[in-house]
Amino acid sequence: MPSLKKVLAVVLFLLVGQTALSQNYRGFREESEAIARNARFSLGPFRFYPMLALKNVGYDDNIYFEGPAVSDYTGTVSPGINVFLPFHNSLILSFMDNPEYVFFLKQKSQRTFTNSFSLGLKYLLFYRFVLSAGYRHSEYREPVSSELFRPTTNVTKGYNASFFYETARKTSIGVAWEVVSFGYQNVDAAGVRFPLAETLDRKEKTGSLEFYYQLYPESFFFTKFGRTEYDFASIQSAGRNASSVYGLAGIRFPLAGFVRGLLSLGYRKFLPAAEGKKTFSGFFGDTGLDIRRGKLGVRVQYGRDIVFSYNPDDYYFIDHNYGLGLSYYPTEFLRFDYNYSQRILEYSEIVRQDRQTGHSAGFVIRVYRDVGLGLAWNYSKWTSTPLGFARKRNSIGATLTYQF
């Protein structure tokens, strides 16, 4: 039987490694070496990686982040499994399955069981060319976006393909293509109807040219140039159809070391198909860095992009989010954390700005290596101009973290 240490090591590799690298292309040899290096469970040629996540396990005094406030005890259990099947150093088949159960003690209608899965293959041709393809079905009970915090069941289905040329130094250049369908569940609550399906159900088609240059082992500089088409499913929302072109560059830092995470900044031009709709041209970013020296750790987060609004009259909003976190390690098995966040929503069609401010404080006890069990208090405040509302939210809960 595998030891507890091996189980935890596998979980750490899956949840930290795969999450951090999911936004960018990963070379065939890099992925093959990672599978061989981190494998702990095998059955013949198959390599198995179990997963486990615990989220929002505790008390929340305003679960919908609305007024009047509704409190409840909540918790989400999210196990899963990743399976890899390598063939003769030229083919990698993969499968992931992630069931999830969301629990509310008093709001029983919010209790939900969902399941997500994905299939993928990566084929090495003539030692330099890599053909990849995949399909994913994601179903989760979660808020639609930073605009609406009421949990709904969202279903995302998509398939993708790419063709890359890889050099001996693990530098890669190639093209990628993806089609993703977004499906949302309408919500009726307290006499208010949120027409999520009519306003947000859509299909996005993206084609891109991508380049990755290895700076150090497990660290890459990358650039991407692409175009996305947005086609809305509802006839009532046909006026929302649009396209965008973008370019971005960034650095992917390794999973271990002084600096970890992703630094990314780009420029996007958003072009609505209908006349009279407001266009968008500007910078966007998705950055999260974790810097550690000795007993002190610093986390920096930045994000900016456009997000479609569920309100038929608002079309889209610009979502700015900033974050700063500090950690202190008094001993090898204990960490204290504090996080500050600021989110600003600027709407395109109306004069409105929402501001969401958050504070979080807690501690984490090391269980094994970088695996820890934590407890944190979270406070959020949401104000809107000119609507004039001010909503507050407090929660306290336990988490299972894989970045001690």
Salient structural properties:
404 residues, mainly beta, Porin, 18-stranded antiparallel β-barrel, two-stranded antiparallel ribbon, 21 strands, 8% helix, 65% strand, disordered N terminus
Helix and strand element order: HHEEEEEEEEEEHEEEEEEEEEEE
Instruction: Summarize model confidence as the mean pLDDT.
Output: 89
Number of domains: 1
Beta fraction of the residues? Answer: over 45%
Q: How far from one another are the termini? A: 27 Å
Largest sheet: 18 strands, antiparallel, barrel
**CATH architectural arrangement:** Beta Barrel
Short description:
The protein has helices at residues 4-21, 28-38, 196-200, and strands at residues 41-43, 46-60, 72-87, 91-104, 112-125, 129-142, 152-166, 172-183, 187-189, 192-194, 202-216, 219-232, 242-252, 259-272, 280-293, 296-308, 316-331, 334-347, 353-368, 371-385, 390-401.
Describe this structure in words.
The chain has 404 residues and is mostly beta strands. It has a single domain (4-287, 344-352, 386-396), classed as Porin (Beta Barrel), CATH 2.40.160. Helix content is 8%, strand content 65%. The strands form two sheets. It has an 18-stranded antiparallel β-barrel.
